[in-house]
Each structure stands twice: as C-alpha cells, then as structure tokens.
Amino acid sequence: MQASADVNQRIARIAAHLNPPTNNLQMEGSSNLRWENCRAKGGSPGFKVAILGAAGGIGQPLAMLMKMNPLVSLLHLYDVVNTPGVTADISHMDTGAVVRGFLGQQQLEDALTGMDLVIIPAGVPRKPGMTRDDLFNINAGIVRTLCEGISKCCPKATVNLISNPVNSTVPIAAEVFKKAGTYDPRRLLGVTMLDVVRANTFVAEVLGLDPRDVDVPVVGGHAGVTILPLLSQVKPPCSFTQEETEYLTSRIQNGGTEVVEAKAGAGSATLSMAYAAVKFADACLHALRGDAGVIECAFVSSQVTELPFFASRVRLGRNGVEEIYPLGPLNEYERVGLEKAKKELAGSIEKGISFVGK
Ligand SMILES: NC(=O)c1ccc[n+]([C@@H]2O[C@H](COP(=O)([O-])OP(=O)(O)OC[C@H]3O[C@@H](n4cnc5c(N)ncnc54)[C@H](O)[C@@H]3O)[C@@H](O)[C@H]2O)c1
Ligand SMILES: O=C(O)C[C@H](O)C(=O)O
After folding, report:
1. Which residue has its alpha carbon closest to ligand 2 atom 9?
2. Contact 144, 152 (CB under 8 A)
3. What is the C-alpha separation between 234 and 76, in angstroms, rounded?
4. Tens-place pLDDT, residues 161-213
5. Which of 111, 189, 288, 304 has its CA 20 to 30 A from that of 340?
6. Which of these, 273, 311, 285, lies nearest to 117 by C-alpha position?
7. Under DSSP, is residue 136 helix (H, G, I), strand (E, B) or coil?
C-alpha cells in the first residue's frame, strides 16, 4: 500500500511539471496552486515582467528573449488570443524565469498584479501605404484599456510602450494614469530603441565599422520626420558628407516603412523590434536593480523642448527616468530637422491627450 501511495505521489508530481501552462491558464485565480508552489521553490530572485500582446509578431520573439533574461524571475504573457500555445511553448525553455499565460480581458488583472515591468506591443501593425497615425483609431482604445489595468493592478510598474503611433499612445497612457491618480512620468517610456538600433546599423555600414561599436543618438519621436538622428554626435566621432547625411537620415526615418513594404501586407518589423524591445527592457531592469550609468534614448515626459513629450537620451535608475539630457549642440541640418519634428509631434501628442479627454 505504501509503495503504491509513493508511486501515485510521484506520478502527481511529474504530471504537475508536465502540464504547467495548461493548468496555469485554466487555474489562474483558482485554488489549484500546486504547480506554482512546485516551481516557486526553485525560482530565482528577479523581476516580474508582463508582456501585453504576447502572442503577436513582436510579442512571441519578445517573450522568448525575455524568458532568456537572467534578471527575470516571472514572465506573464497576456493577449486576447493564442496565449495558451505561446505559453506552453516558451515554458519548455530551460531558463530561470517561470512563465504564466493569461487569455482575454477577464484575465488582464491577474496578468498585471505585482508586475515590476510591463511591456506593451499590443495592437495592429501597418500595411503598405499606411502611416503609423492610421493605426490610431484601433490602437488608442487598446492602449487605454491596458493602461487602466496597469493603474489598478501595478501602478508602480515601469511601462515600456511599443504600440503605434508611439507619439500619441504615450500621451494616452499618461492621461489614463493621471485620471487614475497613479501617473509617475518617470515610469512611462515610449520605446524608440528600434530607431537607435537601425541608426547604429546603417551608420556602421557607411563607416565600415562593427555596429556594436557605434552609438547614434536618435531624438524627437517615432514616426517619419519626428525620428531625428543626431549624426553630428555619433560615437566614435566621425564626419559625413552632405550626401551621406541625407541618405542616412532618410533611411533611418523610413526604416519602418522599408520593412512594411518588404513584408508586403504581412505586417511591420517584428524580429528587429523584439530585439530592440529586449535591449531596452534589459536596460530598464538593470537600472531597477540599481546599476549605475544606464543611458538610453526613449520618448518620455520632457522639458528638453517646449513639447510635453520628447525622445532624447535619458539616464535610467531605480525609479525609471532619473535624468533627461539636453540635445547638445546641433548642426544646421539637425536644427531644421528639429523644427519639422516638433511641428508634427505637437499634433500627434495633442491627438493622444484629447482622445482620453473625450
Ligand atoms: N515602437 C516601435 O518601434 C514599434 C516597432 C514595430 C511595431 N510597433 C507596433 O507594435 C504593435 C504590434 O505589432 P505586431 O507586429 O506585433 O502586431 P501583431 O498583429 O502581430 O500582434 C499584435 C498582438 O496584439 C494583440 N492584441 C490586440 N488587441 C489586444 C488587446 N486589447 N489586449 C492585448 N493584446 C491585444 C493581438 O492579438 C496580437 O497578438 C503595432 O502597433 C506596431 O505598429 C512598434
Ligand atoms: O513602421 C512601423 O509601422 C512599425 C515600427 O514603428 C517600425 O519603426 O518598424
């Protein structure tokens, strides 16, 4: 009798390990916490991260890369479709983070409760011929709902907002948080890292360098002329001909469209974006951990210009954005670009703010 009880217990333990994602998806919020308890004992200390839109083109590779991040102990994958499959798949990776899936609006609060960092790639992507602003009508409402959840369930979380149009979705998020009385401008960051990643790549190609050795500040916003690479401030110090400057500025500003056209209706950048999102999220987690000297470009609440939001280099710390750096000396080409960028940005920011005011 004792032997068969032991065998039964062992089978139950193995079953609990074999079925974590399914159990987990079905049992969130219920009393069946057996699998969770099992994993919690072996869990490593680290940050709790949620991805909203985790089953999408960006969400899936982003989830995979975050599962590989040693700073993450708990990874919540939320979407309105397909999270059971994505969660089951990613949970088999033998890395430290525990993965849980959450499906549909009724599980949003469970997905968000207790999170340190929330990354949002939820929403529709562009097709050829569209601008990012053409996504506003659908994505504005999605971002508003998700941010209402954040206000309620993890108001102190750092938010990395990817959903387009970033120039408007960040102001939307700010307004939602203000309404809820939870707004901390230091913790709301629009992700413009893909512009920096592209700028580093394209500049390195022109200079014949390894892109890992190149650092290009990209300021302004995340759409067309609002994407302003500061080629006069590239590291290592270098100079460009006028022709090179115009080619590089245009290629960086239109990098997203280049991918949208190449994908010919199948969406926009997903893999390079997941890479950029993880690079940025990793910087945020290092800063949250207390590492010094974490400096990245992001679209944030800012006084660098007269606009209420602007992308520029920021120093990240335990509380999110701890210092925003001035733009530094600009050349004439960049000064003209800055004026164009500000003009377009002003309208996009206002559109986001008034959406929540409606
Ligand atoms: N900031 C940037 O640099 C950058 C770069 C690339 C793409 N984007 C933007 O990211 C967004 C996502 O792009 P994608 O290629 O992953 O699109 P996608 O369509 O492949 O994936 C989007 C995911 O969001 C989910 N979703 C929709 N409504 C939701 C809701 N209410 N709650 C949770 N999830 C929801 C969808 O089910 C889908 O799985 C787009 O708006 C795109 O323009 C931004
Ligand atoms: O271009 C897009 O629509 C997606 C994203 O903003 C990008 O820059 O790739």
Report:
1. 256
2. no
3. 37
4. 999 999 999 999 999 999 999 999 999 999 999 999 999 999 999 999 999 99
5. 189
6. 285
7. helix
Distance CA 292, CA 7 (A): 52
- Report the C-alpha gap between 197 and 81 in whole angstroms: 30
Task: In whole angstroms, give the CA distance from residue 213 to residue 91.
Answer: 34
Q: Which pTM was predicted?
A: 0.91
The Cα 70–Cα 72 span in angstroms is 5
Read off the tokens for 42.
């072996």
Q: Which two tokens stand for residue 357?
A: 């005011």
Strands 188-190 and 158-161: parallel
Write out the DSSP string of 140-151. HHHHHHHHHHHH
Q: Which residues does a 6 A CB cutoff place in the pocket of ligand 1? A: 52-53, 55-59, 79-81, 121-126, 135, 139, 142, 145-146, 162-164, 166, 191, 194, 222, 267-270, 273
Active site (catalytic) residues:
222
Q: How far is the CA of 308 from the centre of ligand 1 (A)?
A: 25
